[in-house]
Amino acid sequence: MPRRSRLHIPQHHSRPGEEPDFSYLETSPAGAVARPDVNARVRDIGNLSVDLVRVLDDNHVAVGQWNPHLEVQDLQIGLRHMLLTRIFDERMQRAQRQGKTSFYMRCLGEEAVSVAQGMALRPKDMLFPAYRNQGLYVVRGRPLVDLMCQLLSNTRDMCKGRQLPVMYHWAEGRIFSISGNLTTQFPQAVGWAMAAAIKGEDDIAVSWIGEGSSAEADFHHAMLFASVYMAPVILNIVNNQWAISTFQGFAGGEQRSFAARGPGYGMAGIRVDGNDFLAVHAVTQWAAERARTGAGPTLIEHVTYRGAAHSTSDDPARYRPKDDYEKWPLGDPVSRLKNHLIALGEWSEVRHQALARELEVHVTESWKEAVQYGTLTDGPRLNRDLMFQDVFKEMPEQLRKQREQLRTEQGV
Amino acid sequence: MPQMNMIQALNSAMDIMLARDPNVVMLGEDIGYFGGVFRVTDGLQRKYGEHRVLDTPIAEGAIVGAAIGMGVNGLRPVAEVQFADYIYPACDQIFSELARLRYRSAGDFWAPVTIRTPCGGGIRGGQTHSQSPEGIFTHVCGIKVVMPSTPYDAKGLLIASIEDDDPVVFFEPKRLYNGPFDGDANKPAVPWSTHPKGEVPEGYYTVPIGKAEIVRKGSAVTMVAYGTMIYVCEAAAKALGIDAEIIDVRSMVPLDTDTICTSVRKTGRCLIAHEATRFSGFGAELSATIQEECFWDLEAPIGRVAGWDTPYPHAFEWEYFPGPLRVAAALKAVMEAA
């Protein structure tokens, strides 16, 4: 038979009702990947973009050159941040189900990405997150009440009612406004980093997208600019395997790792176990130091799993097995760090339960406070005049007139 | 006749076209196995296979660019952009390429691409899931722009769009997917099964592109609208007890100036309504055209009611949306003017 051209359609590994199949996932043993010098040439470290950097082994021990040797106290703080993020997510999911807010997105299974990276960076580094990076806010200490008020679009909403829930921002905390349009933040982060270099400051920019979003042209634009100008930026692809209903094969993950696009553009690429708190912390430190010492940008692919639905508007039971997250070969980031601390003799199930209870109380207390400032359905409500502000710095006449028209329409 | 909601009617149109024409293909994010985030393509991949209904990467520019290439190579692609708010990365391919390909190649190359995209507010979608950008597309020469307001029209117009050899941007007012909506969010939802236009023939038919429809005959004023605003106009006119003639534009490009202007010449008054922001919105084109054609028959200035000139704010959905109150106030003003 003569060979013919053909159209390849990426095939999902398992569908609803089938046994989860993760045989496609290529991993490396913990500790197996060497840690090169932060100023290594891109051409000499191509393996980092194909192998998988892992620190925690199956016995919960930190092994290999990438072990960041964090203080026990920092590990405990990391665990606390991840657990708080998870409990916050669960509570906000329930609030959406109760009609208190219109929409929510959990980051179940991806907590280590934001928390470990947030902790590995400096407070003045500028963050350009996607919509599943709530852990960054936890690390940088934004009170949960403030996040909840945004989710409720209430009188203390930082976005003044203009944004969908979870589209936070925090200028003081150096966390950029979330767009809702995908990947737009990637070239913006590169531009911010270029500005830092132009101004001679050593703050770096860090941005996140999902692997699905790496299909957008903005990803490629960002990669090119970052590489051409050797911008001090860390670009993260959180490969949680799913873009709503389509798995990572549809974003180009079938033939080659996402991290390999780094060397493709002439920059360092690292593929890391995204559920391994220590590994994520270590590669972020490496990339940050590389950026700060003039050796240029790094693309980090975090291999992780979207444990929850895409959003409260999504039903993953339609397109993937129900128990897939339990079968994910890289485990759960909270459990893995917890078990590591237990193995070190610095944690216990009892302490873990106590911490969970403490954080649940904290979330509940925060929620009680937040709803006092209003919910989507119950007052107090934001002043409707706010709708017309901030379109421009100065409100043009046309908007003043429309504001007056609305006041008349509403009888006020 | 079978009852269909707008989702089922659109699905039926695509099902029929996939069956009738082996060159028809669909592509878009989540449209295949999953059947689309609004279920509009549900079951089509299962029925016609993965080479006819393609899941794509999240890359609107590439979806439209690839659709153009497929169209040039003899296929008849129907591309879905998941939300109209996400169409902008594709705009270079739409504005500079799809719209002008026939012109710049003196008719030697063309691509019969249909781009389906859900638009409009009223679903608590905030600034990135509520926009009505149709006016932007009407300003580009070389693409047809349509928006149905009923399941019957949705199916007939979509079939006509797919069969059209010119590119069509097909806006689906998503608040109307499951039922007509008059702008009052406090009322219980009404299903399409209660509406005469929820009756949709099972088989093939078309609704011609470029024809407006008079959805209510009247003599006191002409209300010109499309999409969700049809029902808001009906509610406002009813509330005021005004005998309005209500015209569903359906097709913005090409525009059925005759139907609209014949009505305005008869009534002498006109109110234009759309969800999109007012400034440079499609209402401005309608108003200018009507003024040029009907000036000597007008008894009052043409009125325009629209979304405010701000991004679509999440918390102020119903203060932003041009609901029955705002339309009624504008209608009153048009009726009371000299």
**Average pLDDT value of chain A?**
96
Order of helices and strands of chain A: HHEHHHEHEEEHEHEHHHH
Overall pLDDT confidence of chain B: 97
Question: Which pair of protein chains has the largest interface, and what are the residue counts?
Answer: A-B, 53 and 42 residues
Describe what you observe in this structure:
The complex is a heterodimer of chains A (412) and B (338). By secondary structure, chain A is α/β, with parallel strands linked by helices. Chain A is built from 12 helices and 7 strands. In chain A, 36% of the residues lie in helices and 8% in strands. In chain A, helix 5 runs parallel beside helix 6. The radius of gyration of chain A is 22 Å and the shape is globular. A 7-stranded mixed β-sheet of chain B has the order 2-1-3-4-6-5-10, sandwiched between helices. Chain B has a 5-stranded mixed β-sheet with strand order 7-9-8-11-12, with helices on both faces. The mean pLDDT of chain B is 97. In chain B, helix 1 packs parallel to helix 7, helix 8 crosses helix 12 and helix 9 crosses helix 10. Chain B contains 12 helices and 12 strands. Chain B is of the alpha/beta class.
Main features:
heterodimer; A: 412 residues; five-stranded parallel beta sheet; two-stranded antiparallel ribbon; 7 strands; 8% strand; B: 338 residues; alpha/beta; five-stranded mixed beta sheet
What secondary-structure arrangement, pairings included, does this model have?
The complex is a heterodimer of chains A (412) and B (338).
Chain A: H1 72-97, H2 111-120, E1 126-128, H3 134-139, H4 144-151, H5 185-199, E2 205-210, H6 217-228, E3 233-239, E4 242-243, E5 246-247, H7 261-265, E6 268-273, H8 277-292, E7 298-303, H9 324-327, H10 333-343, H11 349-372, H12 397-409
Parallel strand pairs in A: 1-2, 2-3, 3-7, 6-7
Antiparallel strand pairs in A: 4-5
Helix pairs in contact in A: 1-2, 1-10, 1-11, 2-8, 4-11, 5-6
Chain B: H1 6-20, E1 24-28, H2 44-48, E2 53-55, H3 60-72, E3 76-80, H4 91-98, H5 101-104, E4 114-119, H6 134-138, E5 144-146, H7 151-163, E6 168-173, E7 213-216, E8 221-225, H8 229-240, E9 244-248, E10 251-253, H9 257-267, E11 270-277, H10 282-294, E12 303-307, H11 317-320, H12 324-336
Parallel strand pairs in B: 1-2, 1-3, 3-4, 4-6, 5-6, 8-9, 8-11, 11-12
Antiparallel strand pairs in B: 5-10, 7-9
Helix pairs in contact in B: 1-7, 3-4, 8-12, 9-10
